[in-house]
Amino acid sequence: MRRLRGRAETVCVEVAACASAVHVRDSKDVTRPAFTVAPTAWAAFTAYARS
Fold first, then answer.
1. Which of 6, 9, 40, 44 lies deepest, with the highest CB count within 10 Å?
2. Cβ-contact 19, 39 below 8 angstroms
């Protein structure tokens, strides 16, 4: 699992990447459901976020 933080450390998500899925959740509000995406969708999202 990897924890990612925003610059002000007010936004924090946890990401667990497996071969078949990437699981994402808000670690500051664990009452909300996590969501799962395909690894290809996560790769496209992170590539877009970096650009």
1. 44
2. yes
Higher-confidence residue of 39 and 6: namely 39
Residue type, 9: E
| pLDDT value for 29 | 84
- Residues composing the chain: 51
39 in Cβ contact with 17 (< 8 Å) = yes
State if pTM tops 0.85: no
How many Cβ atoms are within 10 Å of 24's Cβ, its own excluded? 16
Number of domains in the chain: 1
Residues 31 and 51: their CA atoms lie apart, in Å, by 31
Question: What ranges make up the beta strands (E) of the chain?
Answer: 2-5, 12-17, 22-26, 35-37
